[in-house]
Amino acid sequence: MSDITLTAQQRRSCLIALIATLAVMAITTGMTWPLLAEILRDQGVDESIIGLNAASQFVGILIVSLLATRIIPRLGFFRATLVGMTMVFVTILLLPAFRDVIVWFPLRFLFGLGNALLFLAGETWINRILDDRTRGRWIGVYSTVGMAGWTLGPIIAGSVDSSGWLPFLIAAACIVPAVFLLLPTRSINLDTGTKHATDASGVSMWGAFLVAPTVLLAGAMFGFVDGGLMSFGHLYTMDMLGDGYRNIGYAVIWTGLIGAIFWQMPIGWLADRIDRGWMLVGCVTVIAIACALLPYVIHGGLAPWYSLDGLALWVTMIFWGGAMGGTFTVGMTLLGQRFTGQALIAANAVFTLTFGIGGMIGPMTVGSAMSAWGPGAFPATLLAVAAAYAVFAAYRQATRHRRTATGAL
Fold first, then answer.
1. I need a labelling partner for 136 at 20 to 30 A (CA). Which of 2, 52, 353, 374 fits?
2. Does the structure show a pLDDT above 60 at 82?
3. Distances (CA, A) of 263 to 46, 252, 270, 323
């Protein structure tokens, strides 16, 4: 059950604000990852430096995650979200004003701080206002909106001139209506346990990790693969097909995200009816298979979409994206199922922390691997991480009842 009591109107206002908040985070992140990577490569910056620059964004996510159990109880969900939106808005406008890789390191760090506040406050907030009976389907709706935003970001980035201000102005403009949709929630009491905030230390976060390591490590796998795909998916495609296929490169990213949009509600519905642990294993296995297939189907980008070669590529990306989104949806559902109250804030902080670690290491590792071994290192690196996590999660799930009976973690 939900651990707070709200009227139907209050719950509706919260859901609208949460959807708008996630859309802001998703659109801005979906635009900046591929767009900034393309701008830097056009300037002659090496892939390894591009990866490091992308990783600086996740350092901000790490900082917020480590402090979340103190920041969110003190600020509250409304103010934490408003501060995050403000930071994202300001940094979005500063990025095109200072097109220098050195300046972008601190700017992307600040951008990561703002987006982490939006992400962490939002995913904790929605789990607090939902009960377990309908949690999966509503988080499926919530995730669908997020995936739609992540899809729209690369579409916008690939459709406008990366050398101008227009993509950044569009991203900034998306934040304005979200602020107005957030305002009706400012007087709603969503007690985050402020009086217990001093107890929400790193010990609590470590305790949350020990309760559900499989679910929380899913955040690291998600961050690694998502950060790698969003930062280098289009560059890999252009390496394989030619620099003239920029639109196909962006399409590889946003087609996967379109798949994520349409898979989230069915996955959320299933998550309310079948074992969520095995669903998580299944989603990650599909990601690993898609990574393995990518080198064999990528040249389908040269063929009409309706040809066998074209369908092989785009269907692979649709399943990849659907499984990526499913990992997020099922992971969030499992967190809401296993944690409540202050423990839920700690668990979401750990999930975001592991996502940030994976997202920081992912672009760095993929970029360095591509610099050392060429474009083929892109799918190989992502495959290795997804497959390793799938084996770990399957083992944990298969031995869960035995560990429960013996009291082991």
1. 353
2. yes
3. 35, 17, 11, 8
